[in-house]
Amino acid sequence: GAVAMDMDLAGDSPADGGGPHAGEKIPIVVEVCMRSTSTARQDDVRDAIEVYLEDLGSVIYAEGPLAMPSAEDDPYLHAHVESARVTDIGEDAQLGATLLTWMIEPVIYVFQLDEDGGGEEMDGEDDIATYKEWPLPNRDFHGQWEALVFDDDDDDD
């Protein structure tokens, strides 16, 4: 019986890396837009952003741009990241609160915008565009995702 109890206690110790607040971390969603010229792997950029957030020491709990380091402070991020934004803030903490990095669980989405405009399908007789198609995510729509309207009507399928 004592051995089992000792094993349970060992799971709660700070030595497991979780620390006393491991179950209480606040998710912070960060959308990272890579530069169109970047050939870096998205996983490498995600890892670099995680390290950058740890090095910052704190994050403001609010939606908006996340300041990126200068070329002198972090040449890798400067070379590969165009912008980063904190998004999808919930009610896990007070809006505008300063959260220390040990309090947060970063959820990082890395993407690269397609620079090509939309392609048109033309009606052969009248040279009228019957539809236009864009590869996503696309530079034409960057910053406008919340304004897009999707038809929920399933009757037209």
Automatic annotation (TrEMBL):
Gene Ontology BP terms: meiotic recombination checkpoint signaling; reciprocal meiotic recombination
Q: Extract one GO cellular component term from the record.
A: chromosome
The ranges of region (Disordered) come to 1-22
GO MF annotations in UniProt: ATP binding
Sorted alphabetically, which Pfam families does this protein's record hold? Answer: TRIP13_N (PF23563)
Keywords assigned: ATP-binding, Nucleotide-binding
Taxonomically, which superkingdom? Eukaryota
Q: Does the keyword Nucleotide-binding apply?
A: yes
Name this protein carries in UniProt:
Uncharacterized protein
Q: Which organism is it from?
A: Micromonas pusilla (Picoplanktonic green alga)
